[in-house]
Write a structure and sequence with these properties.
By secondary structure, the chain is mainly α. The chain has a domain of 52 residues. It contains four helices and no strands. The two termini are 30 Å apart.
Length: 107
C-alpha cells in the first residue's frame, strides 16, 4: 500500500449505517422474513423495538414476541441470526446508485 501524506487526504467517510443510504428497510425486511419463518406475528411495535440493537438481541426480541425464546439452542440461534444476515445481504445486493441519499453524491 502506498504511503499517503496528510496533505494528500481530501476527506474521510464514516458510514454509521444509514449515512450513505437508508439500509433500515432492508434490515426490517430481513427480520420480517425470519419472523414469518418462525411463525412469529410481526407488528409495528416489534419492528420499532429492533432499531439500534444487536443482531442477537433482535433475534431474542423476536423469539420472545413469539414465546419461543427457549425453543432454540445457542447454536441454532446463531444460525438464525446468520440466516437473517444472509437475507439482508441478498436485499442490499439489489441496491443501485438511486438508493444513495440526497447530498451524498457529487454533482
Amino acid at each position: 500500500m502506498a504511503k499517503v501524506s496528510f496533505e494528500q487526504i481530501k476527506g474521510f467517510v464514516f458510514d454509521l449505517d444509514g449515512v450513505i443510504t437508508d439500509t433500515s428497510l432492508y434490515h426490517t425486511k430481513a427480520w420480517h422474513q425470519l419472523a414469518d419463518k418462525l411463525d412469529v406475528t410481526w407488528s409495528k411495535e416489534l419492528e420499532d423495538g429492533l432499531k439500534g440493537i444487536s443482531r442477537m438481541d433482535s433475534l431474542e426480541m423476536i423469539l420472545k414476541a413469539g414465546h419461543k425464546e427457549n425453543d432454540y439452542t445457542h447454536d441454532e440461534k446463531v444460525a438464525l441470526a446468520t440466516e437473517k444476515n444472509t437475507n439482508y445481504v441478498n436485499e442490499i445486493s439489489k441496491m443501485t446508485p438511486e438508493n444513495i441519499l440526497p447530498g451524498i453524491k457529487r454533482s
